[in-house]
Amino acid sequence: MSLHALETVGVGDDGHEEHAHQTVSIQYENIEQQNESYIVGMWSFLVTEVMFFGALFLLYSLYRVLYFNAYLEAHQFLDVKWGTLNTMVLLVSSWSMVMAVYSGQKGRRKAVLVFLGITQICAAAFMGVKSIEYSKKFGEGLFPDARFNYAKALTMHHEESKASGNVHEPPSPRHVMAFKALEEAEKAPEVTLAAPTAMATLAGAPDKNQIKEAVPSAAWGTFEHEQNKARIFFSIYFTMTGLHGVHVLIGMLLMGALMYFYGSKHHCVEDYIPLELIGLYWHFVDIVWIFLFPLMYLIS
Amino acid sequence: MSVSTVDRAISQKEKVRENYLNVAHTVESWLLTTDHKRIAMMYLISISFFFVLGGIFAGLVRLELTSPNGKLLSSETYNKVFSAHGIIMVFLFLVPVIPASIGNFMLPIMIGARDLAFPRLNLLSWYLYMIGGGMILASILFGGVDTGWTFYTPYSSIYANGNVALCLVGVFIAGFSSITTGLNFIVTVHKMRAPGMTWFRMPLFIWALYATSVIIMLGTPVVAITLLLVVIERTLGFGIFSPELGGDPVLFQHMFWFYSHPAVYIMMLPALGVINEIIAANCKKRIFGYEFVAFSSIAIAVFGFIVWGHHMFATSQSMYASMVFSVISFLVAVPSAIKVFNWITTMYKGSVELTSHMLFALGFIGLFTIGGLTGLYLSSIATDLHLTATYFVVAHFHYVMVGGALLGFMSGLHFWWPKMTGKMYNEFWGQLTAILMFVGFNMTFFPQFIAGWLGMPRRYHFYAQEYQVWHVASSLGASVLGIAFILPAIYLTHSLIAGKQASANPWNAVGLEWTIPSPPTTFNFPENDLPVVTWEAYEYYKEQHGHGHSDELEVGAFEWRESEEASV
User: Fold this and answer.
1) Alpha helix locations (H) across B194-248?
2) What does each C-alpha distance from B137 to B87, B130, B261 come to in angstroms?
3) Chain A interface, mutation test: which of B183, B184, B199, most A Cβ atoms within 10 Å?
């Protein structure tokens, strides 16, 4: 065993000679040990990230089993076009990150800057698309806080598809139920809304309570029951994509710092390890999206 | 000329040797330090602060329960007091106590490294702990939290008054402090072991810390996201755990206990590891069945992740799931028993020295055994349904956590105190404290087993007259226990001021930490000269072995890489 130990030391010392220009922190014996520690550390961190998102995927799966129809219906509010675009954008960013790391290993500083720049642009584009999607959801009343307004979203969606002549998608049973509830509201004598049709009013009504007052209690009860399931879908959607978005933003900050260091020829980027670590992180962020996209946008 | 050299030699001898404590004295040198030993000491101080705080809340609870009618506190305040006790003790004391203080200090030294792999991350961990602890403290000061430490939904997410969100964010941040510590330990154990320090030459304390770190890394993120969801639910009104919105509150319990049951082992495993060191050092024997003890730590870590359902026998959990969880919970007893049997076998025919840390360790074994065996009552479904949410459960987990983790910590603290501070404490008071703590602990918590068995529910403010006798008995015991905690605060502090200088190896123990001076220098081992380990752990049977004899070693007689130097 002691022989083995000495061998290790011998190898380490050789390595030390070889990479003498790189800074080795005092706690490490040589640069190999330092680099390996960084890599093991990053992978361990990614394990915690997997558990972090894993808990959310568990939530997603459980409620998907329980409320599959609600998922099926609610997911149509997510725009597959935007989702696909974002997937493409992130795949490109993954490619450019790989190229950046490769260039870093080859010591091509300018190429690293270019590829990191492409990755940054992709990340920014992703966040841009995400913000368009989010603001649309907010406008439709699909943000799942207390003002969650599924009736409004359903109505808007229905009218949009009517206006665009896009009728190949028949209304789902819950769609029908919501409309029934709203129609009953229209017919109900106690409706005191000023607008010509309750449906139009409801579409613009910001306050759920206004609708609640307008609709007979039994029909409303059934509808609210269904609406709550959709609210859970959107709770999970916003939590998961939101946390993913936070990770993208952190990635952008890290890449920004890295670009600054490469730009100013800082000594901390003399070897490619920082780039490699942030690359690993970025690929993890991409992989999370690769799971999120089909699970959220492509339910069937 | 000869006189002057003698003078110089004397003056050099009298000059205080530089160590990690006296190397710098400024406040920045502490707050911005990356030395694992200084961070460990900062952790020790801050954890002790929170322990005192949690202890005060415990005292309030015990005082209140002497009367069945709740004369001292209002019911709401009582809820806040026991919640504060639980939250502080679990998240700010028990989880970090051994890994972040003793572990942080000893892990690099025991495996022959100059520091942890990521010293700055280690410092960040302390700051996260302080920020998280500060937020929890603020939530208590600004009105308190009355959810209990378990934060069950929908009470915590919708109905509870008080600063639940602030408190949860505090727990979330404190969770990241343990994740960073765990990550650091894993990388350090994997990559920083001294030449020749193979996995099976590591002290068992390191195995335990490694297993703990694995649990931390896998469990803590889950509870972090779960508590974050409760915060989101509470502040924004998302409906993931809210039954009103079709959410499943039992799902919260599943996700909470997926962490919080393994968290019990985050608290226990380091203590179990400490006890190995103490027993080996005080019996001057190798731990019997080293490999079994090492793997039992890993087994506990693995089993710990698949038993969380035994906290939910009385919920909507399916009966078949409960049966599986029950069986696996019984299985946890196997690796735990392996440890206890191996310790007893180690002590058998050993020359057992009844030092203070050994007395703590013996107390630990007794209390851990009682705590573990009563755990079997609770893992069998039929008795658990009777005992769910009674004082039996309270007594059980206090036996495991206080009797186990806390006594393990006290034992380790007394064992390594000379190494950490360079001072010897008064052995008599140490022994007295160990005995007093054992007695006081049993007086406090054994009556709770009986009260619980008779049906006293936990967390109740008012209770039936018939239970009063048990509560009074328990409160009496708590005052004895309280004295047993005040004593070390006095004699350990006293040792810092007036204690005898500790030698490098006051207990005549083996292990790398005893080969370096007490207190150690900043980078533990001389520059560019890590020890080469050529011996097994706990090699007490080779008396003539160099590394066991400290007094020579203090001069600098390490086992250096002489052969390597020769080859160069």
Assistant:
1) 204-236
2) 10, 10, 24
3) B183
CA atoms within 13 A on the CB side of A16: 14
DSSP labels for A69-91?
HHHHHHGGGS-HHHHHHHHHHHH
B416-419: long-range contacts, CB 8 A cutoff, minimum separation 24: B416/B102, B416/B105, B416/B106, B416/B513, B417/B492, B417/B495, B418/B502, B418/B503, B418/B506, B418/B518, B419/B106, B419/B502, B419/B513, B419/B514, B419/B518, B419/B519, B419/B520
- In chain A, whose CA is at the least distance from the CA of B175? A48
Q: Give A51's contacts in chain B (Cβ within 8 Å).
A: 217-219, 221-222
- The distance of B294 to chain A (nearest Cα, Å) reads 20
Do the Cβ atoms of A265 and A37 come closer than 8 Å?
no
Instruction: Kindly state the tokens that stand for A93.
Output: 């960013």
Describe chain B by its helix, strand, coil percentages, rounded to 5: 70, 0, 30
Q: What's the CA gap between B158 and B162, in Å, rounded?
A: 11
**Phi, psi dihedrals of residue B238, rounded to the nearest 5°:** -60, 155
DSSP-derived letter for residue A168 is S
Instruction: Answer yes or no: are the C-beta atoms of B373 and B304 closer than 8 Å.
Output: no
CA–CA gap between residue B239 and residue B82 (Å, rounded): 28
Phi-psi region of B21 (alpha: psi -120 to 50; beta: other; left: phi over 0): alpha
How far, in whole angstroms, is CA B405 from its chain's centroid?
Answer: 5
Two structure tokens written together for B145: 């939290």
Rounded alpha-carbon distances, angstroms, from residue A191 to A90, A150, A219, B295, B300: 49, 20, 14, 71, 64
Tokens standing for B408?
């393990």
User: pTM here?
Assistant: 0.88
Q: Are B553 and B504 in contact (CB under 8 A)?
A: yes
Cα separation, B35 vs B524, in Å, equals 10
Q: CA angle B258-B264-B267, nearest 5°? A: 135
Environment class of B547 (CB within 10 Å of its CB; exposed 0-12, middle 13-18, buried 19+): buried
CA distances from A237 to A248, A296, B110, B331 (A): 16, 7, 47, 39
Residue A263 · residue A113 · CB < 8 Å: yes
ipTM of the complex, rounded to two decimals = 0.88
Q: Are B36 and B115 in contact (CB under 8 A)?
A: yes
Q: Residue B468 to residues B67, B387, B455, B463: CA-CA distances in angstroms? A: 7, 19, 12, 8
Distance from CA of B158 to the nearest CA of A (A): 12
CB atoms under 10 Å from CB of A264, counted, come to 9
Interface of A with B in 168-227 (CB under 8 A): 225
Q: Which chain A positions have a beta carbon within 8 Å of B225's beta carbon?
A: 52-53, 55-56, 243
Give me A273's structure tokens.
């390890």
Task: Please name the residues in contact with A239: beta carbons below 8 A apart, sequence gap of 6 or more.
Answer: A56, B229, B232, B238, B240
The tens place of each residue's pLDDT in chain B, 568 residues long, gives 455 555 555 555 555 788 898 888 899 999 999 999 999 999 999 999 999 999 999 999 999 999 999 888 999 999 999 999 999 999 999 999 999 999 999 999 999 999 999 999 999 999 999 999 999 999 999 988 999 999 998 899 888 887 899 999 999 999 999 999 999 999 999 999 999 999 999 999 999 999 999 999 999 999 999 999 999 999 988 888 988 888 889 999 999 999 999 999 999 999 999 999 999 999 999 999 999 999 999 999 999 999 999 999 998 889 999 999 999 999 999 999 999 999 999 999 888 999 999 999 999 999 999 999 999 999 999 999 999 999 999 999 999 998 899 999 999 999 999 999 999 999 999 999 999 999 999 999 999 999 999 999 999 999 999 999 999 999 999 999 999 999 999 999 999 999 999 999 999 999 999 999 989 998 999 877 788 998 888 988 755 444 444 444 443 334 443 434 444 3
